[in-house]
User: What shape does this take?
Amino acid sequence: MPRKSSEIALEKTVRSACVLAVRALELSLLILLWVVDLARSQTTEVPSVQTAELPMYRPILLGKGPNSLINRIDTQELMKKGQKDALLMFICSVKKNGEVEWSGVYRGTPDSDLLRQELQKRLSQGSDARFIPAVYNHRPVDAIYYATLTFAVVDGRPRLRIFSNQEAEEIKQGHDFIGPQPFFGPESKFRGFHYPSQEDAPVPLDGVVELELKIDATGNLQEMKVHSEEPPFSGFADAALADFSKAKFIPAFRDGKPVACDVTLRVNYPGQGF
Assistant: This one.
């Protein structure tokens, strides 16, 4: 029996509707896949801070947070107590997590006692001052930080600065120079500072050695010699040479870039131990 024209028309309409529905579904799936791919590409192209690759070298830095050393020193209290213009040098061992392991303060200008007390207080472990740790070969490392602290009262306001070096000319000029920093790790045979043997120093004494170092832009020690030793002929110079002879350094930085340098580093050997 022949089909009616109305039935044929209805069948064509149903088929067209089905085709349109399938095409709409295909288009929806394509749009969904495009959105997922876009989101995935945006996620992978912008890594988080935690997964971002660390640089080849980075020196110990002060940082700017509330636990930064420069923000923990109470300059207003120092001014109230009568602290005048003063300068101090200090050293500290900074661990991979930014904590201070130990520290020493020395070579202060006259009338710098109040500043010294405040600095020692803020460097103590109870104060929980934090640094941005050093990086070598894309990994955080323990390292030694050498710095100079200056305090002045200018127009009735306290002014505090921390220079990440101990070079007189660099400090005088106010240059953006970060001195080299010996570090601990598999790439460095630096093992810290060791007091002379009892044979060399039978009586516990405080010793000071200044070493002249030439270091290239990758942190390799090129030359080293003793600039001074106090007291002389007491074994401290030999101890310092031995401590630094196999050390590698985070290279010096100038204007944010690693550079070769010639510096003088001071090593204190306290008679009571580190």
